[in-house]
Amino acid sequence: MQDFLGFVKDFIQKKGIQYSWLDSERFKISPLLSSRLSSLLDGKAFIVVTDDERAWFEDYFLSLVNAKSARPLLPFFSLKGFKLDNYEKNEDLLDDVLSLSYPNGYIYVYFGKDNSKMAKLAKNKKDSLLFILDEEYDNSFCLKSSDEHLDIKLITIAQLINACLDAIVFAKVKI
């Protein structure tokens, strides 16, 4: 069984040049992924949300994580079925519904800018997995929206998370 940081390092090195940007970031992203994704073993669900500009990424991420593979389906879900235009007025109601739906708990996984309504929703839950653009927060990973390779970086992060999920589910890493 490999330590999580070593697993991330090996994954990045095997993937090659498109992932090289992650090599310098692995000391930031590894502890964040390890602490949040380990909640999968506690039976927590993951609610994936994005800002409006990255709605495509939400679809990509969910299809990647729950694609046909050798592992079972994982509890990664979207809130697209909810009408959240006025969720600020009903924030407690949304939390109640999600708590009833996911009795073992849930974690938001957010990708996007800091100023979206989905960012506010995810930031209100202390154990969210946040990939925030242009803002540094504790226990989050920051990317730059002006980066011409942002979409590629998001895809590489999604593929890293998917590989980490495999490693966690099949007990290949120590968390």
Descriptive overview:
This protein is an alpha/beta fold. Helices cover 44% and strands 17% of the residues. The protein is built from seven helices and seven strands, in the order βαααβαβαβαββαβ. The protein has helices at 4-15, 20-23, 26-37, 55-65, 91-101, 117-123, 150-169; strands spanning 2-3, 45-50, 76-78, 106-113, 129-133, 140-143, 173-174. A five-stranded parallel sheet has the order 3-2-4-5-6, sandwiched between helices. Strands 1-7 form a two-stranded parallel ribbon. It is globular. The termini are close together. The mean pLDDT is 90.
Name the structural class: alpha/beta
Strand order of the largest sheet: 3-2-4-5-6
Unreliable stretches (pLDDT < 50, length at least 5) are none
Provide mean pLDDT, rounded: 90
Shape descriptor reads globular
Radius of gyration: 16 Å
Biggest sheet character: 5 strands, parallel
What is the share of helical residues?
40-55%
Distance from first to last alpha carbon: 10 Å
Oligomeric state, counting identical vs distinct chains: single chain
| Number of beta strands | 7
Total helical segments: 7
SSE succession? EHHHEHEHEHEEHE
What fraction strand? Answer: 15-25%
